[in-house]
Amino acid sequence: MSAPYLLTGGDGPQLLPALRRALTHATEIEIAVSFIRSTGLNLIFGDLEAALQSKRHVRLTLLTSDYLCITDPAALKKLMLLAERGADVRVFETGSADSFHLKAYIFVRSKQDELISADAFIGSSNISAKALTDGLEWNYHLDYPNDADSLAGQRLEEVRQQFKQLLQRPQIRPLSFAWIEQYQRRYEHARKVVPLHTASVDEQEPVPDAPTPKPHQAEALQALMTTRQQGWQKGLVVLATGMGKTYLAAFDAAQFNAKRVLFVAHREEILLQAEATFLSVLPHKRVGRYTGKQKDEEYDLLFASVQTLGRMANLERFAPDDFDYMVVDEFHHAAAGSYQRLLAYFQPRFMLALTATPDRTDGSDILRLCDHNLVYRRDLFDGINDQQLCPFSYYGIFDSEVDYEHIPWRNGRFDPTKLSTQLATRGRSRHVLKEWRDKSQARTLAFCASRRHADYMAAFFNQQGVPTASVHTESNLTRSEALALLENGQIQVLFSVDLFNEGVDLPQIDTVMMLRPTESKILFLQQLGRGLRLSPGKETLAVLDFVGNHHSFLNRPEMLFGALFQHKPTRQQLVEAAKHPSDLLPDGCYVNYDLAFIQFLDSLVVDKLDTHYAALKQTLKQRPTLETFWDSGANLGQLRRNYGSWWEFIDEQGDASNDELQILEQHAQWFRDLTMTKTTKSYKLVLLQTLLEHQALAQPTALPQLAQWAKQWFLQHPEWLADLPSSLQPLDSLSDRVWLNHWRKMPIHHWCTPEQGSNIEWFAQEDMLLHYQPSVDAAEQPTFNAMTAEILTWRLSQYAQSKRIAANTDFPSQSEQPLEQSLQLPFFPNIKIACGHFKTGHADVEEYLPAPTGFGHLSPDHHFIAQASGDSMNGGKHPIHDGDYLLLEQITPQSAGSISNQVVTIERQDASGDNQYLLRRVLKNIDGSYTLRANNPDYPDMTADDSMVTFARLKGKLSRP
After folding, report:
1. pLDDT tens digits for range 286-339
2. What's a single GO MF annotation on this record (predicted)?
3. pLDDT band (50, 70, 90) for residue 804
4. What is the separation of C-alpha 821 from the centre of its chain, rounded to a whole number of angstroms?
5. Residue 514 main-chain phi, psi, to 5 deg
6. For 37, 175, 225, 495, which has the most beta carbons within 10 A of its beta carbon?
C-alpha cells in the first residue's frame, strides 16, 4: 500500500515508515536535508546500510549542510561509514548570507536505465527523531507511476533535475574527516555562544549519551590496566557473545590514550560494526580502512582485513611501530599464516586479543600467541550468573522430518540448495509450528537457511493464523520495519536470513528459533545472543533448536558446554553433557535434548573410534598415520560419516598441529573428496602421487611431462603394471604419443570433472597445462603436500588390496592364491536395499569385505555387498530379514537380459536428486508392463514406471561378515 499524499506527523501518517518502505526497492536514493541529528540518523541508518549492501547495487547521494551549526558531528562521522560503503555524501557550506532549508527525499527504482517506479517526499522534515516520527511536520508524497496524476513523471523529473543542479553549486564539498574536524570546532563554539532557549527544535534534540562501561567491562578494563602495569605487552580477553568485546576494546584504547589504533578482523561486517563502536567512544578520532577495496592513508583508527594486511607486500607499507595499540578480533583464528605474519611484524606498545570462543585448538596455542597472558574471561554462563545476560530454556528438538545424512555436505557445510529444499516442506513446517506453539513466548526471531525458506515459513505460519513476516535483503520489509512490527506485537514471529546474526538487538525478543543447521560456533552464539539481552518483564529466553541426524550437530552441546571443559572435550564427554546438562547450568537455565537426538549422538561414538585411536597411539608412542589406523582394523567408513575426513578426526583428537589446522580450515573439502574420489583404475591416484613426488601439485605442469612421470612410475613399480590394459603393454616399448593420449583421456580428464560429493573441479586443464585450482600459499605447501600424501598413501594401499596388486613379496599374487581367498568386494554401507518402501542411499565405496565362496566367478567391477532394510522380502522359501547382507551383481537395462521372476534392486531418484533403492521380484505382465512383488504378502504390488531402472540382481544372502 502506497503512502498517503500528505504525511503530517504527530498522530497522523509519519514520514519514517514511508521512508523505510521506499528504501527496500530503490536503486537510486537522493536526499537533501538542512540538518542531520544522530537521533534521526540512527532510525534509518540500518536501512541505508542494508540498501547499500543489497544486490540491487544501490547508488546513494546524500547532501546536508552546516547551516546554523545544527547538524551534529557524531552524525557526520556516522555518515562517513556510509561513504565507506560507497555512498556519495556531501555538505553545503553556508556563508553569512546563505540559507539552506531543503528537506527532500527521492527514491527511484530503475532497471537498465529505464525508470520503473519512484517516490519523492518534499516538505519540512530534517533527519531527526522528532521530525521523522511524532513531530508536527508536513511532507508531500509524489509517486510514479500514478494513474490519478498523468504529470507525475514530469514532476518527478523536475525534482531530480533540480537535485542534480544543486550538486553543482560551488558551496558543496565532499564530506571528509578533515572537514568534520574543522566543523566540530565551529559546532562547539556555537554551543557556547548561542543560548539553548533560542535554538531551533531540531537543535534542542539531544545527542545520545556516550556509551559507558558495564560492570564486567569495568572489571576487564581494570585487569588490562593492571596487566600493563606489570609489564605485559600482549593479553587475551575472552568475552561471550553479547557482552561487548568491541566496546571493551574501544574503552581500553581510550584508557590507554592511544594515538594510533589498528583493529584487525577477517570479516567485513566486523570491521563495519567496529568502526561505529569506536567512533561512539572516541568521537574525535579519524577512521580509516585497509581492505582489498580501500587503503586510506590518513587516520587515527585503522580498520583492516587480515586477508589484505596479512600479505607481506602490504605489511611493508607500514613501520612495525606505526601503531601504539592493536586489536585482533576473533583471535581463535590467529594460528592462520596471515595472522602469524601480522603478529610477527607489528610491535605495538600493547596488543589486545579478543575472542568469544578460545577453543579452536586446545586453548594453550592461542595463549602462546599472547605470551600465555589470559587477562580476563567471562563466558556465556558467567554473563548469565552476573545478570548481564538473560537465563534461557533450550530445547534441542529432533528434526524428524529431515534426513540430514543424505543432504550433500561440502566444504564443511550442507549444500545450500538441497538444504533449502529439504527444509521448506509442509511436513517440516507442521513440525516446527507444533513445537513453536508448545514452547514459544511473545516475540520470536527465527533463523532460516535461505530467502526461499524464510518466505515459505512466513507464508505457512500466516496460513495457520499466526501473524509473521519474512525479512532478508530482497524482502519488502526493511530490517528496522520488521523489528518495529515485532516490538509492537503486530507480528509474533520474524523469519530472517542472516540479517540479525549480529549488530542488531531487540531486548524484548524472548524466543529464538533455529530452523537451519549452523556449522559455525560463532554464528550459533551470535544467533543465541539476539535474545539474551535483558529486558523488563522478560524472565527467560526460550530457544527452539532443531537438531538432526548428522555429525555436524554434535557442535550443539559443544557450543553450549564446551567452555566448561579445561581442554577440548571428546565426543563422549559432549554426549554425556547432553544427557545430563542440569549439573552444568547456571541458575534459571534449562537444557533438554529429545531422546531421539541423544540416541543419535550415542551412535556417533558407538564404535569407539576415539578409544581405538588412543590405544593405537599409546602402542606406537606417536600419532598413527591413516594407513596404520586402517591396518589396525578401524572402521574408516564410520570415521568418514562421523567426522568428514581423517584430518578432521585428528583435529577432534587434539593431535593436529597449528600448521595442519590452518590447512584444514581452508582445504577440508579437498581431503574429504580425496578420501572418496572414485577409482575404477589406479590412474587418478598415480597422477596425484607423481605430482607430489615432483613437488608440482601447486604449479601448472605440462601434460607431456605428467605422462612421462606416470610412465616412469609404472615402470619403477612393475607390480602395478597389471592395472594397465593389454593395449598398453608392454609399457616400456609403448610410444609416448599413445601413452599421452591415454593419460589425457583417463586421469587428467577425470580430475578436471566435478567430484560427485562436492561438485568441485579440483584441477583445470588449460593450454596443455594441468593445475590444481585452489590457491595454496607457498609457505603452507609442505604441510598441504604432507597431509595430502597421508591420505593418498592409504588410498593406494586400499586400492592395491582390493585389486590384489602385490606391493611386496609377502602379499600373494593372483597366481599364488585362489581368487576367492584374496578377492575383496566393495561394501556400500550407505546403500540400504529397501525391503519395504524406496529408501535413499549413496553409492560411496567406504569399505571392502572378503568375497564369499560358492557363487562362481566374482569381480569387484560387477559385484558388491549391501544390507537389507525392512521386512517386505521376509517370506517364501528364501526370506530376507532386516539387516541381512546381500551379494548383488550390478546390471543395466541393456545388460540385464531377462529379469522376469528374478529378485532385483530397482533404482530411482527422488525430487531432490538423491538415489533410492528397492528390492522386489519382477513379474512381466501380458501387456509388456512389469509388476514389482514383495515376498511378504502384507506389502501390495507396485507397477514399474519410467522413473525406475534396474540397478542390481540379487545373487544371494550372506552370513554376516
Report:
1. 888 888 777 878 889 999 988 888 888 888 899 999 999 999 998 877 766 678
2. DNA binding
3. low
4. 48
5. -105, 105
6. 495
- Asked if residue 132 lies in contact with residue 19, where contact means CB atoms within 8 angstroms, the answer is yes
Q: Are 757 and 673 in contact (CB under 8 A)?
A: yes
Helical H runs in 230-311? Answer: 245-256, 268-281, 306-309
Could you read off the pLDDT of 256-289 as tens digits, one per residue? Answer: 999 999 999 877 778 888 888 998 899 888 888 8
Domain 6-204 matching CATH 3.40.30.10: the answer reads no
Do residues 410 and 760 lie in contact, with contact meaning Cβ atoms separated by under 8 Å?
Answer: yes
Q: What is the pLDDT of residue 550?
A: 84
Contact 335, 661 (CB under 8 A): yes
In the chain, domain spans: 6-204, 215-378, 395-604, 657-803, 821-958
For residue 817, the model assigns a pLDDT of 29
Closest CA to 54 of 476, 469, 472: 472
The 10s digit of each residue's pLDDT in 118-155 is: 999 999 999 999 999 988 999 999 999 887 777 888 88
Cβ atoms of 609 and 642 closer than 8 Å: yes
Give how far Cα 889 sits from Cα of 668, 858, 905, Å: 34, 9, 10
Residue 586: pLDDT over 80: yes
Question: Cell numbers of 363, please?
Answer: 586453548
d(CA 889, CA 600): 32
395-604 adopts what CATH topology?
A: Rossmann fold (3.40.50)
Between CA 375 and CA 865 the distance in angstroms is: 58
**One fold for 215-378 and 821-958:** no
Separation between Cα atoms, residue 392 and residue 541, nearest integer Å: 4
Determine whether domain 215-378 maps to CATH 1.10.3720.10.
no
Helix (H), strand (E) at residue 418 = helix 416-423
Which strands form 287-290's sheet, in the order they lie side by side?
Answer: 287-290, 301-305, 261-265, 325-328, 350-355, 234-239, 374-378
183: enclosing H helix or E strand: helix 177-193
pLDDT, tens digit, for every residue of 467-477? 999 988 778 77
Range 583-592 average pLDDT? 88
Amino acid letter, residue 380: L
On the question of pLDDT at 819 being above 50, the answer is no
> Using one digit for the tens of pLDDT, what is the confidence trace for 589-630?
999 999 999 988 887 765 567 788 888 888 888 999 998 888
Q: What is the DSSP letter of 625?
A: P
65 closest CA partner among 194, 170, 173, 160 = 173
The answer to whether the CB of 261 falls within 8 A of the CB of 326 is yes
CA end-to-end span of the chain, whole Å?
69
pLDDT at 641: 72
